Amino acid sequence: MTDHREPADRLPTIDVHAHCVPVDVMDTLRADGGRYGIEVADRDGRSAVLIAGRVQTRPMFPALMDLPRRLAAMDVAGVDVQVLSSWIDLTAYALEPDAGARYARMFNEALVATAATAPDRFRTLATVPLQAPDPAAHELRHAVSSLGMDGVEIATTVDGRELDDPDMAPFWSAAEELRALVVVHPYASLAGRDVSRYNLNNLVGNPAETTIATAHLVHGGVLERHPGLRVVLVHGGGFAPYQMGRWDRGYSAAADGAEEHLTRPPSDWVRQLWFDTVLHSSASLRFLVEAVGIGQVVLGSDYPFRMGDPDPVATVRAVPGLEGDDLARVLSGNLTTLLEEVRR
Questions:
Q1: 46 Cβ neighbours under 8 A, 6+ residues apart
Q2: Whole-angstrom Cα distance, residue 318 to residue 96?
Q3: Do 332 and 12 form a contact (C-beta atoms < 8 A)?
Q4: Are 270 and 240 in contact (CB under 8 A)?
Q5: Mean pLDDT in runs of 10 for the chain (344 residues)?
């Protein structure tokens, strides 16, 4: 593991991809879950929730709620700041709009209160009821302007709808106006495919899910209509950076609508996204930097999950040829700039 002690004049290392469930959220849901349309079941020291009577989450890792353990892990790994976001299973897009808005407000207030216990170590991303785009836009504005949050984490699909659904325009407009971070995280990966064996739902499904969501953002023209968006893709962007040439070929060949909503090649838009470093390979990280540019790569860990990177700073430091100012940009500078430019 990395020694946390570093020169005092360096920028802090900032991890954009770290999940957290405030203890207060679970206590509130146990006491008054009916108000939010969410039921909690506790078993063998772990909790799961049933959302809107039809979406069952996985059992929750206790580490999601353990702040002393989190801070200790950050110290060991040399991570100064985590940008906290919800566990994606708790996004709760299955809720009715009113319940979803109540739940998002409660969750965001609890997450901000959690971060306030160590304000020099934590930043926060909101959750919003994206199943109702107008209330989602309202909650994002409140989260950034009133609660001081830095943006939002969203899932790759919204209760079965893709991210280029025209109804989502109010949310994208609000995110662009605020210059808020929008971290896109896989959820229900490759639904309908049997990827239950060999952990393929995670090993293959999660990066594939991110790739599909990215393709909808690009080919659906969301990024053309909202060029000021600050979208961050986890797990290194899935397979998207590796397949930009194929996407460009579809655009130039006008293959079955691949060009319909675009005036520029898809790779132009992919290179305006940001990508975290959770690739588990120094060679893959080197390729990512060369494919999208040094300014588009930001530190990530996927804390506290077993498929995360427990030593993300060391992973980045191990990338061949990544040193000096370029190393500093990935570890801190790129994300620091994004956070400073959020319009409060």
A1: 59, 60, 61, 62
A2: 46
A3: yes
A4: yes
A5: 48 97 96 96 90 94 96 98 98 97 98 98 98 98 98 97 98 98 96 93 96 98 98 98 97 94 97 98 97 98 97 97 97 98 94
Name the β-bridge partners of 303. Answer: 18
Closest by CA position to 142, among listed 116, 97, 112: 112
- DSSP assignment of 199-223: GHIIIIIHHHHHHHHHHHHHHTTHH
Please name which of 298, 194, 190 lies closest in space to residue 236, comparing C-alpha atoms.
298
Which tokens in the block code for residue 119? 């304000």
Cβ distance 313 to 331 under 8 Å? yes
pLDDT at 3: 44
User: Which of 124, 117, 248, 113 lies closest to 181 in space, CA to CA?
Assistant: 124
Q: Torsions phi, psi of 56, nearest 5?
A: -100, 125
Task: Spell out the alpha helix ranges (H) of the chain.
Answer: 23-32, 67-77, 97-115, 133-145, 169-178, 200, 206-219, 222-225, 244-252, 266-270, 282-292, 312-317, 324-328, 334-340
Q: Where are the domains of the chain?
A: 14-23+62-340
CATH of domain 14-23+62-340: 3.20.20.140
Tokens encoding 291: 């494919």
For 95, 173, 174, 182, 272, the CA distances from 230, given in Å and listed in that order, are 26, 12, 12, 6, 8
